[in-house]
From TrEMBL:
This is Ankyrin repeat domain 37. ANK repeats lie at residues 30-62, 63-95. Transmembrane segments: none annotated. It comes from Strigops habroptila. The gene is ANKRD37. One of its GO terms (cellular component) is cytoplasm.
Length: 171
């Protein structure tokens, strides 16, 4: 069974089920698991079943592609959402150095690419928040609570006024 180009035959998934294929066992010589085949065919229900039975979301085939790459290649937003919800690695690169978002963009699936990039950005920001990252912009200014920024600004202005007054007395 050859599915590398995501041209899965309609009966191939049911054939796997009937044969009792192991959830993470490569279904073919190219190293594609049943989860690869489901994602490649845009079969969200079958993919969900695979995920619930313990499928490895980050298992890579001979091209270095995981199920998330296959879903992006065919523009299956439903499969991508399932994979992301199951904690698939969004930034995983295939042998050509492409992420799933890169593939979605290359194949013209802009909504899928946008979804993946937004999700990756959100995950990155959460990680930075958990690692003690200080939310500062490029100029070193604190981003975040506007009330705290306003209070900080008022304090700075107050100090500057006091310096000016004391300077006026000396002159």
């Amino acid at each position: 069974m050859r599915v590398l180009g995501c041209g899965a035959e309609s009966g191939s998934l049911s054939d796997l089920l009937e044969a009792g294929a192991a959830v993470n066992a490569p279904a073919d010589v190219f190293g594609q698991s049943p989860a690869h085949l489901a994602a490649c065919g845009g079969e969200a229900f079958f993919l969900l079943w695979q995920l619930q039975t313990g499928a490895n979301l980050n298992q890579q085939d001979c091209l270095g592609e995981a199920p998330i790459h296959k879903a992006a290649r065919v523009g299956s937003l439903e499969c991508l959402a399932l994979l992301v919800a199951g904690d698939a690695k969004i930034d995983l690169c295939n042998n050509s150095g492409q992420t799933a978002a890169d593939l979605a963009l290359a194949y013209g699936f802009l909504e899928c690419a946008r979804f993946l990039r937004t999700t990756q950005h959100t995950q990155t920001m959460k990680l930075r928040g958990q690692s003690g990252y200080s939310p500062r912009d490029d100029h070193g200014l604190l981003r975040g609570d506007p009330a705290a920024q306003k209070q900080e600004g008022e304090t700075t202005r107050s100090i500057c006024r006091k310096r000016r007054r004391s300077g006026d007395l000396v002159s």
